[in-house]
Request: fold
Amino acid sequence: MTKDIIESYLDKSRLQKRVPEYIRIFMGADALTASLYDDENQLSFSSSTSLRADALTASLYDDENSALYRPQRDFTMIEPSESSVFLQNEETHSTPSFYEIEKSAGTKLIEMDSQGDITAVPGEEKKIATFGLSGCTAVAVVSEFADGTKRGYIQHYSPLGDQLSGLVLRREMGGVEQQSPVSCKMVIMTPGEHCKDPDGKWIMTPISQERVDNLIVKSGINNDKDIKVYPYDLDCDLGSYRQGTLMIEFSSDGETKIYTEMLPVKFDEEL
Reply:
């Protein structure tokens, strides 16, 4: 029954009416245009088109080997358009994220609602960082000791974890204080908003000063010069490599840097 149906569809007169469709499928739109239009730009079912139909019939059906039952067929591959190649290249060569770059570099990464630390001896290179701040508050503390050892600590908590954030920071700093550090420096990175200062200049200030004050108290650091508050703009592109990031870097040459959105913090200057 299937064979009868196929043969009825492959009737020559019927097939000629559907030649454009078949040629479009097997040869592509360009071949269709070339085969259907003569020099006078008129549609023409010439003898050559008829021969194409006969050839198409033979290719679609063979008494001994029906095309419907062939396990494999050869298809003409159409080259991708320039636009599709461009999109593939964009996907293949897209800029790696902060997480991908720093993970491959061996940086210790701290996720939301967690904390972590690293310790480096003189001449040792190490990094610790957090990322994806979008309404959360992060804290970085660098503690240095008499033997040259350095400790880097970072925590990252959402607004719902404000109380826990303070308690966790107090626990960390309590342990540091027992080791009699030579120095401690802290950076608080928190959501900010634009406000005018007394001189009428627009500045970025913390949305919650109470949150910042609580963290400063819990840290136990009394010297204001050792504390920097970095209010960050919530209206930002988190797809950007540096935005919403906080990092501590210990270099082999003994230099220590804290980065807010990949900009080094200078404790002797205003942020």
The domain at 98-264 is CATH 3.30.1330 (60s Ribosomal Protein L30; Chain: A;).
